[in-house]
Amino acid sequence: MDLEDVTAKMLSEWKSHESTFGEDQDSLQSTSPQSSMDSMCSSPEMCYSSGHQEIGDFSFTGFTGRRTTPTSQRMSKPKMSTKRRMKASEREKMRMRSLAEALHQLRDYLPPDYSKRGQPLTKIQTLKYTIEYINKLSDILGHA
DNA sequence: TAGGCCATCTGGTCCT
DNA sequence: AGGACCAGATGGCCTA
Predict the structure, then answer these.
(1) What is the pLDDT of residue A77?
(2) Could you give the number of structural domains in chain A?
(3) Which regions are flagged for Low complexity bias (predicted)?
């Protein structure tokens, strides 16, 4: 009984809620998850030698002014071996994939109202709507 | 064509 | 030393 009531209440709230995030949905975009997963740089190995590997001894990131340790470290820090770098890249790839997978799963727990246009939510939207959803659920439970 | 989204690579930092 | 995490950079795909 409780669950059904909550669900019904939720759904009715979603109706009124639509307008709230309707504007956000304008920015809804993105292709299907799979297509984005597969179509991108489908084979990592293919892209591996892509670009900025070694640019002499001049640190690429140093040039872009990113979070770097000032001055001296640039030269003193020994570069990772190629083998170790490749392993790290592989791990990072797996890590990001599991993150993406988790987000895809999370998306399934959100009411369909959130992706009304038939397009899957983006990662950021998924996270933001999840926060909203949890807040609403908490609210409802709090008033039960 | 511009802008958004995404996957991947990479170097830095922190932790074990 | 090596793994995990983070954030910047890059390039491809897609849509308005």
Answers:
(1) 60
(2) 1
(3) 27-45, 59-72
pLDDT at A114: 80
A66: in domain: no
What is the distance in angstroms measured between the alpha-carbon CA of A101 and the sugar C1' of C4?
A: 18
Nucleotide nearest to A80 (CA to C1'): B11
What are the residue ranges in chain A where pLDDT is below 70?
1-78, 116-118
Tell me whether residue A75 is in a domain.
no
Output the domain CATH number for residue A88: 4.10.280
Buried b (16+ CB within 10 A) or exposed e, A76-98: eeeeeeeeeeeeeeeeeeeeeee
Given a contact cutoff of 8 angstroms between Cβ atoms, the answer to whether A117 and A28 are in contact is yes
In chain A, positions 45-74 with C-beta closer than 7 Å to nucleic chain B are 45, 47-48, 50, 52-54, 59-62, 67-69, 73-74
- Could you tell me the residue range of the domain that residue A94 belongs to? 81-143
Q: How confident is the model at residue A120, as a pLDDT?
A: 84
Protein residue nearest nucleotide B12, by CA to C1'? A68
Is A95 within a domain?
yes
List of residues 6+ apart from A104 with CB closer than 8 A: A33
Please indicate, yes or no, if residue A13 is contained in any of the structural domains: no
Q: How far is the CA of A10 from the C1' of B6 (A)?
A: 32
